[in-house]
């Protein structure tokens, strides 16, 4: 697909990069070995988003739910998230890491990027990265911090700097949000690919954009 | 499909009955004329759910977003909701209507059923009906009413009596939640049918149950 055929672009895309463990198993590897293969696809997608003029991407790194998995898996996805950020530091993006830093499961290496926007290079795109995130934690933050006035709930979410998502793309075939930013996803269009995330191809991205163009945006109206 | 082949049933199913206006247009009717054709399918589905042992269903009636539509449409879907409840009163279900009653757009006829469970007949199934609902209103209710302690957010939602949904089925082809119970939907599996809601067939229900059986339930873990 050529860029010229895309007339209606999402401003903000959410990414659920699922299927790393199933991909590993299908390649005769241990489950935890899959996560490291999920780093490069993120950068392929980052390049495509800049090329097509997407303004904001949110990656679902890992959740507090995910850390109930075996320790070897938890260590592997924590390390993959750290490596991804270290690699992004050499690119051109504004980064915001959103997650519960009050837990030993939050990687210490990412504390400098947590809950504040950090600019790398030319800052060509806004990238949000959910690390040790939990939908419940996100909402509780609001309850604990918001004045009891209307309209303050949303501005006091832990994720309040993350804008409403237009399109969510999920790899790995599951048709569910799995707690991905429940407030920012209320009006999002949801596109699911059966392929596992480490098998990312640019065609997946264009399939999703092509489908998105055919949707209407009503924001519930 | 026979009941005996269903080994893994959702306890609670959410229903987004979309496509009434598009159905009307495709039948040479005015858009607002579609809603009345959405009542009987709800009862067909109710019968099937009782037959298969589903414990709870939540129907997305209309939202505060929806009431921004032309007045003739708003009147039509308000009336359809009232008729649906009057008809259900002769069946066997526990009914809970959830919605913002502090607005003239909430149908007065449904005030006796609002925000409290009412038992009709043998009460064979729990039916929740969202009427003049808004995700924002639902969450704000919590902010205004919850003590500032952890874990109180969810018990103070306006929809706090509605349990977590296992499966959401949407008719009309749109792949989005449109603000449907953002907290109860965080882990729900999401099945979309292209057919418009007034064209409901029992096969749609069994397609969704068949697909649901092939999913795993991880609750994010």
Features:
homodimer, 221 residues, alpha/beta, Undecaprenyl pyrophosphate synthetase, 5 helices
Task: Please provide a written account of the structure.
- The structure is a homodimer of 221-residue chains.
- A seven-stranded mixed β-sheet of chain A has the order 4-3-5-2-1-6-7, sandwiched between helices.
- Chain A has one domain: Decaprenyl diphosphate synthase-like (Undecaprenyl pyrophosphate synthetase), CATH 3.40.1180.10.
- Chain A is built from five helices and seven strands.
- By secondary structure, chain A is of the alpha/beta class.
- Chain A is globular.
- Chain A has helices spanning 20-26, 39-52, 71-88, 135-145, 202-213, and strands at residues 12-17, 56-63, 93-98, 117-120, 126-133, 167-171, 189-192.
- The A-B interface holds A 63, 65-66, 68-69, 135-136, 139-140, 142-144, 146, 148, 150-154, 174-179, 182-183, 185-192, 215, 218-221 and B 63, 65-66, 68-69, 135-136, 139-140, 142-144, 146, 148, 150-154, 174-179, 182-183, 185-192, 215, 218-221.
Quick recap:
The first copy, chain A, has 221 residues and is of the alpha/beta class. In chain A, 28% of the residues lie in helices and 19% in strands.
């Amino acid at each position: 697909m050529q860029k010229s055929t895309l007339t209606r672009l999402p401003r903000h895309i959410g990414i659920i990069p699922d299927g790393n463990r199933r991909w590993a198993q299908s390649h005769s590897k241990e489950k935890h070995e899959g996560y490291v293969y999920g780093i490069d696809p993120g950068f392929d997608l980052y390049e495509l988003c800049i090329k097509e003029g997407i303004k904001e991407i949110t990656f679902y790194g890992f959740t507090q739910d995910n850390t109930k998995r075996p320790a070897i898996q938890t260590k592997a996805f924590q390390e993959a998230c750290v490596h991804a950020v270290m690699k992004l530091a050499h690119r051109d993006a504004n980064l915001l890491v959103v997650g519960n830093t009050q837990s030993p499961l939050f990687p210490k290496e990412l504390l400098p990027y947590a809950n504040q926007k950090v600019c790398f290079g030319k800052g060509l795109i806004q990238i949000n990265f959910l690390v040790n995130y939990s939908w419940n934690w996100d909402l509780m933050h609001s309850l604990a911090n918001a004045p009891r006035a209307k309209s303050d709930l949303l501005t006091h979410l832990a994720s309040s700097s993350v804008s409403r998502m237009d399109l969510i793309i999920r790899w790995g075939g599951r048709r569910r949000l799995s707690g991905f930013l429940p407030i920012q996803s209320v009006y999002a269009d949801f596109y699911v690919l059966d392929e596992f995330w480490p098998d990312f191809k640019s065609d997946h991205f264009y399939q999703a954009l092509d489908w998105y163009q055919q949707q209407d945006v009503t924001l519930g109206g």
